[in-house]
């Protein structure tokens, strides 16, 4: 994005050029020269914006299903939504999370590598409190989780693997399984520190407690399915997923739907006094000219221009032209 100068800066620049302190030709030459952009090889971007959007779409669906799962298990208000999707070095992800947190490590066969779900302690303790019959309040704890608390949380997140499986089903079939449950991120040695990972950050609210849930996906997991993370693939998948039998049945039912068809001979407006004074043989003038076609309406929407006539001893109309949505027709 170009820098916008203030009026004072513009005046000072013009003054410097006028006085000779600054050469306009040199400025023009500098502008024409190729600009060097700094690139950090430690922070290599391996995924395009299109692919990042696809990953975001997958996890928006995952967040909705996780919300449903949490709500049904905890019997309280839960809201989970995707906040951001970024690609960062694995080392940066490890540094960004707390020293003591809740880490669920999932295998996602047949894909290689492991996926990490990092749950903020505020959310973890609120889950525990609710599971144990509390209101879902955050517990202020300085020490690590007990073995019973670890077991309860592990069982809770083990049951949630189906949400991950269903959310990824639109791209590939996976069989996620909770392999490890950790508290200290320093024990995470899944990939090299400089390897690129995609971090999906989600905001979670359980009752009055809020916190973050982060999904870390190493590049090794996504590499085999990168071609599927494109808009073109998603559009083709949507076409393939259409049930031909259901589509034909719906089309057949629609064709049997009855609609109201009316041909408008003309309209007119008279005063109440004139209406009350009407008697036999009086004539009411309509706004329809005799040399112009009539309007045919379907469910009160003008669709065709027609001319009146007779067919098999019945009043009929012959279609002259179709009026498409947005087109004007002569009155």
TrEMBL record:
Flagellar motor switch protein FliN-like C-terminal domain: residues covered: 253-323
Membrane disposition: Peripheral membrane protein
A single Gene Ontology CC term: plasma membrane
The keyword Cell membrane appears for this protein: yes
Annotated family: Belongs to the FliM family.
SUPFAM superfamilies in the cross-refs: CheC-like, Surface presentation of antigens (SPOA)
Subcellular localization(s) per the UniProt record: Bacterial flagellum basal body; Cell membrane
GO MF annotation list: cytoskeletal motor activity
Record-linked InterPro entries: CheC-like_sf, Flag_FliM, FliN-like_C, SpoA-like_sf
Name of the protein: Flagellar motor switch protein FliM
Record key words, sorted: Bacterial flagellum, Cell membrane, Cell projection, Chemotaxis, Cilium, Flagellar rotation, Flagellum, Membrane
Claim: Membrane is one of the keywords in the record: yes
GO biological process, one term: positive chemotaxis
């Amino acid at each position: 994005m170009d820098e916008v100068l203030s009026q004072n800066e513009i005046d000072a620049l013009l003054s410097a050029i006028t006085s000779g302190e600054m050469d306009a030709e040199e400025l023009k030459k500098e502008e024409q020269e190729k600009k060097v952009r700094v690139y950090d090889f430690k922070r290599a971007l391996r995924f395009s914006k299109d692919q990042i959007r696809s990953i975001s779409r997958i996890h928006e669906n995952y967040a909705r299903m996780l919300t449903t799962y949490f709500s049904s298990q905890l019997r309280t208000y839960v809201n989970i939504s995707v906040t951001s999707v970024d690609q960062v070095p694995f080392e940066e992800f490890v540094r960004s999370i707390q020293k003591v947190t809740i880490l669920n490590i999932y295998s996602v066969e047949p894909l290689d590598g492991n996926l990490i779900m990092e749950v903020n302690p505020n959310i973890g303790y609120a889950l525990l409190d609710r599971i144990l019959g509390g209101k879902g309040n955050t517990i202020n704890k300085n020490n690590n989780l007990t073995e019973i608390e670890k077991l309860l949380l592990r069982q809770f997140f083990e049951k949630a693997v189906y949400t991950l499986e269903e959310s990824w089903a639109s791209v590939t079939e996976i069989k996620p399984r909770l392999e490890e449950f950790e508290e200290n991120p320093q024990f995470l040695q899944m990939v090299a520190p400089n390897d690129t990972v995609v971090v999906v950050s989600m905001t979670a609210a359980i009752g009055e407690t809020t916190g973050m849930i982060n999904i870390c996906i190493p590049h090794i997991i996504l590499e085999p399915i990168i071609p599927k993370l494109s808009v073109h693939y998603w559009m083709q998948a949507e076409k393939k997923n259409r049930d031909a039998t259901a589509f034909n049945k719906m089309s057949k039912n629609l064709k049997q739907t009855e609609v109201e068809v009316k041909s408008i001979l003309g309209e007119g407006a008279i005063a109440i006094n004139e209406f009350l004074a009407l008697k036999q043989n009086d004539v009411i003038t309509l706004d329809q000219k005799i040399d112009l076609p009539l309007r045919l309406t379907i469910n009160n929407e003008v669709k065709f221009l027609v001319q009146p006539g007779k067919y098999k001893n019945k009043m009929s109309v012959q279609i002259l032209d179709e009026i498409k949505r947005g087109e004007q027709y002569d009155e």
